Amino acid sequence: MIWNKEAECMPFKEREKLQLERLQSIVKKVYDNVPYYRKRFDEIGVKPEDIKSLKDIAKLPFTTKTDLREGYPFGMFAVPLNEIVEIHTSSGTTGKPVVAGYTKKDIEVWSEVMARALTMVGATKDDIIQNGYGYGLFTGGIGVHYGAQKIGATVIPISAGNTKRQLEVMVDFGSTILTCTPSYALHLAEVAEEAGITKKDIKLKAGCFGAEVWTEKMRDAIESKFNLTALNIYGLTELIGPGVAQECPEKSGLHIFEDHFYPEIVSTDTLEPLPEGEKGELVLTSLTRDGMPMIRFRTRDITSLRREICKCGRTLIKMDRVTGRSDDMLKIRGVLIFPSQIERALLEIKGIEPHYQIIVTRPHHLDELEIQVEASKDIFSDEIKHIEAMKKKIESHIEKSIGLRVKVTLVEPKTLPRSEGKAKRVIDKREL
Amino acid sequence: MAKIREIAVFAENKPGKIEKITGVLAREGINILAITIASTNGFGIIKLIVDKTELAYQKLKESGLTVSLNEVLAIAMKDRPGQIHDIALVFSKNGINMENAYVLVEETRKQAYLIVQVKDIERAKKLLEKENLKFYDE
Amino acid sequence: MFWQEEIEVISREELQRIQLYSLQETIRRLYYNVPFYNQKFRDVNLKPDDIKSLEDIQRLPFTTRDDLRENYPYGLLAVPREKIVRLHTSSGTTGKPKAIFFTKKDIDQSAELIARCLIMTGVKSDDILQNMMTYGLFTGALVMHYGAEKVGILVIPAGPGNTERQIALMQDFGSTCLHLTPSYALYLAEVMDSKGIVPQRDLSLRRAYLGAEPYSEETRIKLENMLGIDIYNSYGLSEMNGPGVAFECKYKDGMHIWEDNFLIEVLDPDTDEPVPEGQEGEIVLTTLKREGMPLLRYRTKDIAKIIPDTCRCGRTHKRISRIFGRVDDMFIVRGVNIFPQQIERVLMGIKGVAQNYQIHLEAYDKMTVKVEIEQDFFDGNIEKLLALKSRITEKLKSEILVTPQVELLEPGTLPISEGKAQRVIDNRNL
Q1: Average pLDDT over residues C396-423
Q2: What's A285-337 look like in SS3?
Q3: Which residues between 14 and 53 in chain B have a beta carbon less than 8 angstroms from any beta carbon of chain C?
Q4: Which of A61, A177, C207, C234 has the least CB density, counted as fewest CB within 10 Å?
Q5: Which subunits count as partners of chain C given 3+ CB pairs below 8 Å?
Q6: Is the CB of residue A382 less than 8 Å away from at least one CB of chain B?
Q7: Cβ neighbours of residue A48 under 8 Å, at least 6 residues apart?
Q8: Residue B66 and residue C373: Cβ atoms within 8 Å?
Q9: Rounded mean pLDDT of A178-186?
Q10: In chain C, positions 334-373, which contact chain B (CB-CB < 8 Å)?
Q11: A116: how many CB neighbours lie within 10 A of its CB?
């Protein structure tokens, strides 16, 4: 099924025309309305009129996460504040979070692209969508919710976590589509198995999984355990949330909704655009965003693009599975964090040595973050109670700063390995 | 007799608990040889080695406390520096984990014992005997 | 200001005419589409046509919590499943939650009611709502979200918790309205105070909507003074859409219940007879506009009274007082309804736990479950006890959706009461 045949199956040439029109108008819009962009354009001497073809996009400056932080809270908005009806922020950051502002029109576009994505996965108005993405400031839950309501499907806004209830609801209401992170899907499958819930008890036919990097191996495992079709969804708060791209049942890449999000692949070294098929960093420009347009946003996600007519009939360009990042950012349970954020939070606590190691594991398919910290000697000469209290204090402080629960292990001074040069702070034991 | 028995008492973290325990023991003329207290957020466990273990256990229980009797290893050592270190070396060499440990010193101050709680007491005992460690004779 | 002036200031006669029409229509749909209600009507020998006046509602059967649970999951649907676009649940006492279904029309209607509420308190297009209720299966956050969206104001879907971030959001985005529970509001005010934040000086707050838990007039006044804002009381329950059933207007003297959507009765919980207007009793509600899952004479178990005179604001919809208490022993923590039996059932299923337990509630909704361990379970191993403690915590969290503090006690420390034990000790003073 295709939600919007006209947009999704549009001939290449026609779409390019549409993209160019939209690009020109968004570039003009940000130049006129967002001081930040006007300044950046002026600095490198580019004017909206210089965009005569899609290729000319390379003349425009990039936008990075840092730019967004510096513009916090309203610096990137292209409309007056009273036209913004919803705000989301990126999860888990110590400094200022990234803000995404949506106008009514943006919410409509978001619902539209999510309706396309869910339809691509197989959702119709008769389906029951169990939405296990987190609701709230995080875009995952509400994004899927809007798309499901647009289709007219039944949405169960169960949000993330509480495995027992997830399974209960899945069985009792006969959920047909599951949306959550792939690692959580796998976890659910395993707990279901342990609880003696069989494939017969579960009516799931498809899953829409994303918000973290995953593999074909994980797909196979989820599909065989749940007997469903597991498809990959891609998106990011800076552009809109989930709904930037979605994999179709052909499983040969994710269709980018390029009438709304214009993709480029650039070299991570030179930042020059790379030819189709080559691996590099994905750069996205929002073509229709009303409240907060993004020009050439550097996603830091590594992938490649392919233009072909898919067997599913869509002409939308395809991107490969994201295989990594061009920075040291970690994605834990769907939340993006830099090791430096953890460091900053740690060092705010008295009695902590600046030596730590972050160990990421995935027992039972759920990401776990352990932070080993060297504590000063005094702490260890103290009562167990105080060590416990210290541990708790660090855990809650880090949770407050990065928004993720972590396990802290206090180790004695000088027990963590010392490296020369750049310390290896992160040991990622997950099989990604 | 390598193994001796330790008495463990459950204690919520509130004042007066130890006083209650020692009161019971004093009344019965029971001598405390060693005592250790471990506490977490919320509750603690008091462990004792006494001269009349069985009697102490009965009396503490009768007084309404939550008590258990557990076997532990009591390893003989001289009361002088470096002794615990030597024993610890033997433990780590044999891959035995000390779950909990404390020291009991005889009145004479000539002989001391390291009281150790381990997961598999029989196995640990065998391994340690091979290393020529001596144990407390109950 | 009014959102739907015509219906909000409608004459009583006209309102009652609409109510009767909607009631008859609801009854017909229930009789023909919901086997459960069909049977209930047959049991008392009643046909839809027998209902000729609003007073005739007293001839209709009640609907209880148990009915909802027994008909779980799809038993009370009045439309084909495909017409349902959203499911909400609330926790239940025997493991199965209560399921509440919304059609597109129901969602739209619940949003309309919230829009009336918000406008009634003076909300204008430049307001910014920080929605601090839990998003997800609970109705609290999403229903408010859709209502605010309908009004067209900016919504920050903050969800609950992480108080420092909440304050940062208020500072950075200039939030003017808050939606939260009274206990969290008290905590928030304390944190602000300890951080030297003076809301009147440092923030742009104008008003807060407090709901999901009963609280006193004293707490309202205290909070209004601490935060320098107007506080409005909100009443709702997930069985009836969630928030937006009744809401205070500018005069803060009782909550207007939207009588075109809900038919209210106040009954003596012992005799099930109506009490005279103005007297306390159990609130019993009938949905008049609900499409997906209409409910007849639903026993809310909430105790309140109707305020007899008309309101100065001009709205003709009756007002109810704040909720004075409950007919049963349910209590509310962080907006979640909890029955002591739920906790008991979890505890009794865990090895090492003795019979006796107690639930302590302290300021800011701090919940402690005190549990006695079994004599024989104790073997001096501290790890084993810590594991027991975390197992109890996990299992309780999974059942009641709130993480309590668990305290392990010696056997025999909790008082054994004769007859019904006092399981809940509430020191919150809300």
Answers
A1: 81
A2: EECCCCCCCCCCEEEEEEECEECCCCCCCCCCCEECCCCEECCCCEEECCEEE
A3: 38, 40, 42-43, 45, 47
A4: A61
A5: A, B
A6: no
A7: A24, A27, A28, A31, A41
A8: yes
A9: 91
A10: 373
A11: 25
Residues B63 and B7 grouped into a single domain: yes
Note whether residue B122 is domain-resident. yes
CATH code for residues A5-327:
3.40.50.12780
Domain membership flag for residue B136: no
Do A87 and C154 lie within an 8 Å CB cutoff?
A: yes
User: Do B53 and B103 belong together in one domain?
Assistant: no
- For residue B39, the chain A residues in CB contact (below 8 A) are 383-385
Amino acid at C227: L
User: Would B102 be classed as within a structural domain?
Assistant: yes
Please give, rounded to a whole number of angstroms, the shortest distance from the CA of A317 to a CA of chain C: 31
Q: Which residue of A has its CA nearest to C91?
A: A165
Same domain for B114 and B76?
Answer: yes
Taking the CA of residue B114 and the nearest CA in chain A, the distance in Å comes to: 19
Instruction: Report the residue from B6, B45, B64 with minimal CB separation from C412.
Output: B64
Range of the structural domain that residue B103 is part of: 72-130
CATH classification code of A335-428: 3.30.300.30
- What's the gap in Å between the CA of A406 and the closest CA on chain B? 19
Token digits of residue A341:
């954020």
Residue among B8, B12, B40 whose CB faces C386 most closely = B40
Q: How many CA atoms lie within 13 A of C305 on its CB side?
A: 11
The answer to whether the CB atoms of B45 and C382 lie below 8 A apart is yes
> Of B8-22, C126-140, C414-428, which one has max mean pLDDT?
C126-140
Q: What confidence tens digit (pLDDT) does each residue in B37-66 have? A: 877 777 888 888 888 999 999 999 888 888
Mean pLDDT for all residues in chain A: 89
CB count in 10 Å sphere of residue C142 = 30
Q: Are residues B34 and B83 located together in one domain of the fold?
A: no
Same domain, B17 and B48: yes
pLDDT for residue A421 is more than 60? no
Q: Is the pLDDT of residue C325 over 80?
A: yes
Structure tokens that stand for A135 in this block: 């609701």
ipTM of the complex: 0.83
B65 and B76 in a single domain? The answer is: no
Q: How far apart are alpha carbons C24 and A6 in whole angstroms? A: 46
| Separation of alpha carbons C185 and C216, rounded Å | 13
- B38 contacts on A by Cβ (under 8 Å): 384
Cα(C84)–Cα(C77) distance, integer angstroms:
9
For B117, name the nearest residue in chain C, comparing CA atoms only.
Answer: C381
CB within 8 Å: C157 and A172: no
d(CA C97, CA C138) in angstroms, rounded, equals 11
C401 touches chain A (CB under 8 A): yes
**DSSP H or E segment with residue A117:** helix A104-121
**Does one domain contain both B51 and B19?**
yes
Q: Which two tokens stand for residue A144?
A: 């899927």
With a pLDDT cut of 90, the percent of chain C lying above it is 71
The domains of chain A are located at 5-327, 335-428
Q: Is residue B138 in some structural domain?
A: no
Domain CATH for B59: 3.30.2130.10
Q: Which of B70, B95, B117 is the last residue of a domain?
A: B70
In this structure, what CATH number is given to the domain that contains residue B114?
3.30.70.260
Residues B41 and B63 in one domain: yes
Q: What is the per-residue pLDDT across C91-141, written as a single tens digit (0 to 9) for each?
A: 644 467 889 999 999 999 999 999 999 999 999 999 999 999 999 998 999
Is residue A371 over pLDDT 80? yes
| Min Cα–Cα distance to chain B from A58, Å | 60
The pLDDT tens digits of the residues spanning C160-180 come to 988 988 999 999 999 999 999
Task: Determine contact, residues A187/A211, Cβ cutoff 8 Å.
Answer: no
Decide if A173 and C162 are in contact by the 8 Å CB cutoff: no
